[in-house]
Every structure is written in C-alpha cells, then in structure tokens.
Design goal:
12 helices; four-stranded antiparallel beta sheet; binds magnesium ion; 24% strand; single chain; binds adenosine-5'-diphosphate
Length: 325
C-alpha cells in the first residue's frame, strides 16, 4: 500500500487565559504528539469524544492551523517547509468538508458561483470547461440543474452538504478531511450522504480522514479507524479488528457506550461505564486515560504510553497502553 499522507509527531497547543482577570495562562494540548499514515485510496476514521482534539487535528493536518511542532508529509513533501505559493498549489489536492454546510457555504453566492469558486481560486479551465464540470458535479450529487441559480437558504441540510461535497471534489483532490460531515443531518439523510461519499471514493480514488464522534458512522465508512483521547491517539487498526477485538480500555468503553442491549452478564462485567470527561483529567505526565481507567497502575501515572503494535497483527493494530501487549 502506498502512503499518501504521513503525520509525524504533530502537536497543536493553545494558550488559554483563565481566572477572573484572565491573567493565569495555561497551555492546552489539543493535539499532543500524534503520528499516523493514510494510504492511497483509503478512508481513515477518526473517532473520540467531543473536545478530544479531532477538529484541531484535521485542521492542523491541512495546515489551516499552524502546528506547534511536528510535520505532515503529503506525497513525501513536507508541508511545514512550504511557503505561500507552493502551499496554495498543494492545497488544490487537499480539501475539507465541514459539519455545518450552512456556515461553510457563502449565503450570498448562488450554487453555481459556489461550485465555480475553486476553479477561479486555482485558475483552472476555461469558462465553458468550468460550466461543463459543475454540471457534471451537480449530476453526480443528484441535484437538478435548476438548482444552479438557487442560494444555500433554498436548500435542505442534506442538499447543502451534497453541494459542499461537490465543491470539495471539483478539482479532483487526492485527500479530503471530512469533519463530522453528517452530524448535523437527520439520521435518514446521514446514510444517503455517506453512501454518496463512499461511491465517490470508489470513483475518484481519493483518501479521506473522516472525523466523527459517532462510532456507527465511522464503522460504515472507514477502512481503518483511529481512536483519539484528549489529544493523543490511543488505538489504530483495521475497522474489522477494532470493532471485533478492541484492545485499549478506552476503545472498549467507547464501544460499550453505543446503545445496545447487554444481556450477557459476563460481557457486562468485562466492560465498565465511563465517568464523565473532565478537563482536569488531562494529565501532565503519564497516560491521559489514567484517572478513568480500570487497569491503571503506577506506571500509567508516570509514563505516557506510546502507540505500538499489539496482538497477533502488530503491523496493523497499534495500541497506546502499558497493559496491552
Ligand atoms: P473535537 O473536534 O474533538 O470536539 P476540538 O479540536 O474542537 O475537539 O477541540 C480540542 C480542544 O481544544 C478543546 O478543549 C477545545 O476547547 C480546544 N480548542 C479548540 N480550538 C481552540 C482555540 N482556537 N483556542 C483555544 N482552545 C481551543
Ligand atoms: Mg470537532
């Protein structure tokens, strides 16, 4: 498998001012030393609770946020080393789809203008070629040509997200970050949009970092899944392996939190319910999951576990836990 994108020890810290006079300054490690790869044509699902740093990671990978440290290699090119012009060129191949298609589409632009924008920005094609492309795209996202003259406000949530997807695909990108692209949609519309994305992935062959807090959505669309917890990746594996034999105690708890009946008493005992997440749980040393973990011992409070191969498929299944081998 060919690597399209390699994220190497990427961190993004925010400085936050606290206290009544906002004088106390602390560092929030939204993304803390994260490394992973995305192969050509695959969808890597990124899952974790709200606030764990998924959006920050997605934005930093695209360099929409400046990283605090670390680097991203896209087709072997270091993004950190690229300046304005070269970065703009490479951006053509990297697109983002956001959660809320209403705020990501300009309300004052018609659908036609919205879909033409990427061609203008990157000076691609003649006017008639652009027209042909946007007609093709509109047809692909199953919307009639009459919608070209409409504005985002005239569209339903699902239709807006289909336009946002069409816009992201306009310049045939190699890589897309989709940040909770169906979370704002009704459940009935969700699977329609997911199917559309899957069929485009087959047809156009792009790779995707698909972010969601919803395991069921991630399961539907991903080839591999990465689980994030308070700024770090705790487990990464092929989808089937992650769902059939989760190894990190946090992944197990997440899977258990998916509402479904548990009749099996043995299984119930094996897992546990998570205490609510508290920002104070970000531990300066050791494992971030320490205070919520049933397996925690002293080493967990002292040493941060690294992501390493585990089980009988160590190349494909990596876990960051002192107690998983
Ligand atoms: P997720 O997408 O998983 O919900 P985010 O990446 O949005 O998480 O946020 C991760 C953490 O970073 C949160 O604690 C959030 O409050 C914080 N954060 C995000 N953006 C900023 C910012 N611009 N300034 C300060 N803190 C931020
Ligand atoms: Mg988010």
């Amino acid at each position: 498998m060919k690597t399209l994108l390699k994220v190497s020890s990427l961190s993004k810290y925010y400085t936050v001012k606290e206290g009544f006079f906002r004088k106390k300054v602390s560092i929030l490690k939204a993304v803390d030393d994260v490394s992973f790869e995305i192969f050509s044509g695959e969808t890597l699902g990124l899952v974790g609770e709200s606030g764990c740093g998924k959006s920050t990671l997605g934005r930093t990978v695209l360099r929409l946020n400046e990283a605090t440290s670390g680097d991203i290699f896209f087709k072997g090119i270091s993004l950190a080393s690229l300046g304005g012009g070269d970065l703009r060129k490479i951006r053509r191949s990297m697109q983002m789809i956001f959660q809320d298609p209403y705020s990501s589409l300009n309300p004052f632009m018609t659908i036609e203008e919205t879909l033409k924008e990427p061609f203008y920005v990157h000076s691609v094609g003649t006017s008639s070629e652009q027209d042909e492309c946007i007609r093709f795209l509109l047809d692909k996202v199953r919307m009639p040509l009459s919608y070209l003259k409409r504005y985002p406000k005239d569209l339903s949530g699902g239709q807006r997200q289909r336009i946002a997807i069409a816009r992201a695909l306009a310049l045939k990108p190699d890589f897309i970050v989709a940040d909770e692209p169906v979370s704002a949609l009704d459940v009935s519309i969700q699977s329609e949009v997911l199917q559309l994305l899957s069929s485009f992935k087959e047809e156009f062959g792009f790779s995707c970092l698909f972010i969601s807090h919803d395991l069921a959505v991630v399961e539907q669309i991903s080839d591999r899944v990465a689980v994030m917890y308070l700024g770090s990746l705790v487990e990464i594996a092929r989808k089937e392996d992650l769902f059939s034999s989760p190894k990190h105690p946090y992944t197990k708890a997440l899977l258990e939190a998916v509402p479904r009946p548990v009749y099996d008493e043995e299984r119930r005992k094996k897992y546990f319910s998570l205490k609510p997440l508290d920002e104070k749980m970000r531990s300066p040393l050791g494992c971030a999951f320490y205070s919520r973990c049933p397996l925690a011992t002293r080493i967990c409070s002292e040493e941060k576990p690294m992501l390493k191969g585990a089980g009988n498929n160590p190349f494909n299944h990596k876990v960051a836990c002192h107690h998983v081998t």
